[in-house]
Design brief:
Strand order of the largest sheet: 9-8-10-11-7-12
Shape: globular
Radius of gyration: 23 Å
Largest sheet: 6 strands, parallel
Oligomer: single chain
Length: 337
């Protein structure tokens, strides 16, 4: 583990020196062309100078101490045999250091939430997923704790991505027998006309975001086989009518585009041994004028029912390109005026 010593120059700027015993891990910590250090510098307003196997962090007390803690935590992650990518650095900057365990074994609910400071981890066949904001962490926990959970907030906050990851985790760990992913087939402000092909060809463009998330967690051939064998179903909301969904992990994406009747129909599909996640963004409703959003009605009617959780995200939880958060904030401010 890195060791740190604090020196106090005459002026108000202080310097922390961290020493790292493994130069190879230090190279990974710094990143190609020191890009990881640059990210930390730009985010916290500090200067990081590399001196052999040491990093000197220069800056005001609060920012310097935060950078010190982030560097130690990231190095500890590397010592534990974990990878380090931009998302991991972003998470440390947003959430602060947490307990880092060794290389992950089989993930179940108890392991995911071991200890107050332990990391929340979602194990899939292709990668280990870790929430990058406090809201995401609370959301993932609620998906394991509740049979019905809502994730409401702007685009890019990981609502659907994390829900599908939890679904894959529950499937491969034997907690459910199948995954069902659905969304309303509503055009986002444009007319696509009559699409060619059979029914699957017509609805697949609407379902593509769900395929994208799924392929991030399962090898391509395995995902295709599971879809072919109906272990994983990806279908429009209209296809859910008349079904009872038992022993399944069910996700309804873009729920703001479900009507009140469609939402009621979908919610009442919940069967024994199943978990259901509803995700949506109230600012992106594509329903015709005068048609109420089922997501809004569900939130109003169900918010006081025990064992139904509502998790909310804001622009600060956006984990896409930083410009996405700025764009969302600009539109939110305009709507307030």
């Amino acid at each position: 583990m890195a060791t740190g010593a604090l020196t106090q120059p005459a002026d108000t700027v202080t310097e922390t020196v961290l020493e790292f015993p493994d130069n190879f891990l230090l190279i990974d910590l710094c990143g190609e062309y020191d890009r990881n250090l640059t990210t930390i510098e730009n985010s916290l307003g500090v200067q990081i100078v590399r001196r052999g196997n040491q990093l000197a962090v220069i800056g005001e007390d609060g920012s310097r101490q935060t950078a010190h803690n982030v560097l130690q935590s990231l190095y500890g992650r590397l010592e534990a045999g974990r990878s380090l990518d931009p998302g991991d650095i972003d998470r440390e900057l947003r959430m602060g250091p947490e307990t880092v365990r060794g290389p992950a074994g089989p993930a179940d609910q108890e392991e995911l939430f071991k200890g107050d400071g332990a990391r929340v981890e979602i194990k899939t066949r292709k990668k280990l997923i870790e929430p990058r904001t406090d809201a995401q962490k609370a959301y993932v926990k609620s998906l394991f704790d509740n049979e019905l959970a809502f994730g409401i907030g702007p685009a890019g906050t990981g609502k659907t991505y994390l829900a599908v990851a939890v679904g894959v985790n529950m499937l491969i760990s034997g907690h459910v027998d199948k995954i069902i992913l659905s969304r309303p087939a509503v055009e986002a402000g444009e007319k696509l006309g009559y699409l060619p092909g059979d029914m699957k060809d017509k609805v697949d463009p609407y379902m593509q975001p769900l395929y994208d998330a799924l392929n991030d967690f399962l090898p391509g051939k395995q995902a295709a086989k599971m879809i072919e064998e109906k272990v994983i179903e990806i279908a429009p909301l209209a296809f859910m009518r008349g079904r009872t969904l038992s022993n399944a992990f069910v996700v309804l994406d873009e729920a703001q585009n479900a009507t009140t009747m469609q939402m009621k129909m979908f919610l009442t599909r919940l069967g024994e041994g199943s978990r259901m996640v509803i995700t949506g963004d109230r600012t992106q409703i594509d329903l015709p004028r005068g048609v109420n959003s089922g997501l809004w009605d569900a939130e109003r009617l169900l918010k006081n029912i025990p064992k139904i959780s509502f998790n909310y995200f804001s622009a600060k939880d956006v984990v896409r390109h930083p410009l996405v958060a700025a764009i969302i904030e600009a539109y939110e401010k305009d709507n307030e005026n």
